Structures are given as structure tokens and as C-alpha cells.
Amino acid sequence: MLNDTLAAGGAPAGDTGSLIKDTTTASFRQDVIAESMHRPVLVDFWAPWCGPCKQLTPVLEKVVREAAGAVALVKMNIDEHPSIAGQLGIQSIPAVIVFQKGQPVDGFMGAVPESQIKELIGRVAGPQQDPLEAALADAAALIQEGDLAGAAEIYAAVLEQQPDNVTALAGLAKMQLDAGEIENAKRVLEMVPEAKAGDPALVGIRAALELAEQAASLGDLAGLQREVETNPDAHQARFDLALGLAAQGERGQAVDHLIELRRRDKDWNEDGARKQLLQFFEAWGVMDPDTIRGRRKLSALLFS
């Protein structure tokens, strides 16, 4: 039951004196990659001119301090150090990417509320204490395990308590979309109150709907597959094949084709393979297993 979902334990103790620091392009590997081998590191990409950044950073610092060593916070001024943000596809700020064991594993964009930051830290560093947040995390885990009925039951329970809960509505819409039920996904999104229509949780769903509609025009993929097998440097065919595979739910293969395209020619179509990967990640969501896998492979390619 939802009301029986309880958090357990607390954040591990740590040296709070070194939890928060600024980094540069030169020190990024040490401050982020190396440190993330010991605990999750939240990287806050910001700029002095960014108003929402000024709202978000103090909240980030507060939550990280309260986590008492469970995570660290590293801040990067993209005006002074733009290359890392560019390589990771950061297109708007504020943006927070979590690194763990040397790889990006989670994150968000925009000046999100304190509760969402705590939920993020709970995912990467330990259990959460709020029952509703814990239930939503459980639903996401069930989806990854293939238990769609269990996830739908949790979302329904959440919506009984909070009919306008955007996370639950977005989760239900994504389940419908993943099942190929585009119209059903649209109907779920119509339940979102107008005041919450711009919620970041809905961005990926709308992006996924757009991808699904675009991919519908590709038709049979057999010809594209043969062309790529015959000529591995047929970049446009490989790109189109990746779009089609993603639409058919073969996300791992889609990611692999775009990674291979980018490895063969990083400048093709103005770095089109990387840009398409980033659109996939936005559409699938930061916690989707294929997004996590794809970000790891892209990060390994970019930082090799």
C-alpha cells in the first residue's frame, strides 16, 4: 500500500567541509569524475547572468548540506568553462547532472523545487522519506523491471490522493506511449491541469510523441538495414535506421547505431548523431535504462 511505503535509514556521514566547490575544465576530472567514484556528485551548470540559476543554487547547497556527505555538489560556470557543458549537450541552464562511478546517471534542468532535488538525491544516494515520492520511485523501478501493471496501480493510488500529480500523469502517459498507444498517451496528457502544462516532467513525453509521429513516415526498415550492412559509411541510412528502431522500441540498437555513426564521423550533419541521441534521452527520460546506457556510452566516447 502507498501509505505503507516508508523510508529507511539516513545519509551516510561525511566531510561536509568539502561537499561544495567550484570547478574548471582542467579540474573537472578530479573534482567530478574521480570524486564520483566515492559518492554521487551533482554538477550544477550555471552562469552569472542566469536568474533561475541564482534561485536554484542556494537550494542545491542547502539540500546537499542536509544530506550530510551522501552527495557532493560541484558548480561550473559555463561562461568561463563552456566545453564540458557543450559535450554533454547542455542547451539551457540551470542544469544539474549527477555523476556516479565516473558516469552521468541522472539529472534535471530548470529551477526545480527543493522536493525534486531531495527526490533526486534519494534515487542516487539512498531511500527517500516522503511516502508519495517513494511510491513514485517504486513505480519507476517496476517499469524498469517490466511490471507495468504494478506501476499503473501505484500511479492510480497516487492520483487518488493528488489528482493533479504531474509525475504520476507523466508516468502513465509514458507507459501508454511505450506500448504504442499514442492516442491513449495524448488523452492522459489532457488530464494535466493547464497551470502545470509546462512542468519539466512532461517535456520528455511530448518529445517522445513527436519522435513517434516522425518515425511513422519511415516505413519498412529492411532496406535501410541492408544498406548499412552493405556500406557501413552510409551515414544517412544509419541515422534513419536508428530513428525507426527507436520507434519500434529497439532503443538499445538505435543508440548503438548513433554511437557508431558518431564514432565514424563526428562532424556528419553538424554532429547530428550526438544531437539525435540527446533528443532520444530527453524523450525517454533521465531514468530510462536505455538513456542511462546511452549517456554512459556517449560520455565514454566524448571523454576518451
What do these coordinates show?
Helices cover 55% and strands 9% of the residues. A five-stranded mixed sheet has the order 1-3-2-4-5, sandwiched between helices. The model is unreliable at 3-17 (pLDDT under 50). It is of the alpha/beta class.
Question: Would you spell out the secondary-structure blueprint of this structure?
Answer:
Layout lengths: L19 E3 L5 H7 L6 E6 L4 H16 L5 E6 L5 H5 L7 E6 L2 E7 L4 H12 L5 H15 L2 H14 L4 H13 L3 H8 L13 H13 L6 H9 L4 H13 L3 H14 L7 H13 L4 H14 L2
Parallel strand pairs: 1-3, 2-3
Antiparallel strand pairs: 2-4, 4-5
Helix pairs in contact: 2-4, 5-6, 5-7, 6-7, 7-8, 9-13, 10-11, 11-12, 12-13, 12-14, 13-14
Short structural summary:
By secondary structure, the chain is α/β, with parallel strands linked by helices. The protein is 55% helix and 9% strand. The relative contact order is 0.09.
Amount of helix: 40-55%
Distance between termini?
46 Å
Radius of gyration using CA atoms only: 20 Å
- Indicate the low-confidence ranges by residue numbers: 3-17
Order of helices and strands: EHEHEHEEHHHHHHHHHHH
Summed up, the helix count is: 14
Strand fraction equals 5-15%
**Secondary structural class:** alpha/beta
> What do the pLDDT scores average to?
86
